[in-house]
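Hypothesis: this fold can be encoded by more than one sequence.
Test: take the structure tokens below, design a sequence, compare later.
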């Protein structure tokens, strides 16, 4: 799936000396308290966790939460890292990432990896 592909891309870029920062949902279900699951570490890759929401309609997958907190975190991250571009995958709260990139004047490229027939099953 998309997570495996993104981890492979991030790892390969890092091994080539590219600074890679990955921002993902924290995978802590909305309303649940406690520590979120720890992401699988990738050597040389910084991992930033964002608030999580259930994916609309499917309700069995997570996406980034649509929140001011996530917008603020992304803007701070982009300003700190100063990337040449940002890559995002299509998801329900894409407007948050788009807004952060617009605020920071950084190009955004988006890719679609979802097998909607599998998710809807």
């Amino acid at each position: 799936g998309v997570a495996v592909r993104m981890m492979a891309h991030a790892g390969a870029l890092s091994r080539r000396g590219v600074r890679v920062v990955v921002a993902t949902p924290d995978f802590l279900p909305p309303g649940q308290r406690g520590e979120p699951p720890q992401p699988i570490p990738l050597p040389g890759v910084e991992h930033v966790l964002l608030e999580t929401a259930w994916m609309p309609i499917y309700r069995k997958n997570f996406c980034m939460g649509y929140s001011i907190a996530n917008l603020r975190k992304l803007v701070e991250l982009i300003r700190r890292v100063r990337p040449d571009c940002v890559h995002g995958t299509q998801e329900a709260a894409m407007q948050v990432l788009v807004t952060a990139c617009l605020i920071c004047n950084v190009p955004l490229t988006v890719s679609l990896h979802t097998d909607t027939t599998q998710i809807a099953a």
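The first strand starts at residue 20 and ends at 25. The chain has four helices and six strands.
Hypothesis status: open.
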